[in-house]
Amino acid sequence: MGILNQPFRFLASIAGTRGLVAFMNFLMWFGNTTILLMAAIMGVDPGLYEAAEIDGASSSQMFWRITIPLIRPIMAYVLITSLIGGLQMFDVPQVLTNGNGNPDRSVTTMIMYLNNHMYSKNYGMAGAISTVLFVLCAVLCFLIYFNMTRDGDSSKKTTKGGAHK
């Protein structure tokens, strides 16, 4: 196309390598995520949208007040499984960079780091890395879960006797 004078070496630059890893993971998991979210959206009762349209709701109001709250459980599942998949990413950067994570170890993941310590027989460090990875994964999953499943409507709060405010 004449944009560059010489070929761009993706694996020689940090941005190019990270971009390739991100693009490959996006292509690997886009279909699964799309199927899950589309199934969740198709499970929403169309009568709710008709009633909202009769009441004069805009399309953005219907999206934020009907669609998002009703697909929130599936979205929580998708976000948690995507987070776990991202934290466990190993194959794409391992194959692309021959296990080094180069250039400048910019695409070295925690699992690649753990793998390097396992092969060097540094089992203490490998155990510490896996424990940190477990704690990090657990904390982030709980944050996503509680953030996605909390009731966002403050008008439903009850008083001490159980009556609505």
Helix-strand sequence = HHHHHH
Label the overall shape. Answer: flat
| Total strand segments | 0
Please report the number of helical segments. 6
SS content category? mainly alpha
Head-to-tail CA distance between termini? 65 Å
Give me the Rg, rounded: 23 Å
> What fraction of residues sit in β-strands?
under 5%
The largest pleated sheet is described as:
none
List low-pLDDT spans.
none
Into which percent range does the helicity of residues fall?
Answer: 55-70%
Mean pLDDT: 85
Describe it:
With 165 residues, the chain is mostly helical. Helices cover 67% and strands 0% of the residues. It has six helices and no strands. α1 crosses α3. The chain is flat. The mean pLDDT is 85.
Key structural traits:
mainly alpha; 165 residues; 67% helix; single chain
Quick description:
Helix content is 67%, strand content 0%. The chain has helices at residues 14-42, 46-54, 59-87, 91-96, 110-119, 123-149.
SSE layout and pairings?
Blueprint: H1 14-42, H2 46-54, H3 59-87, H4 91-96, H5 110-119, H6 123-149
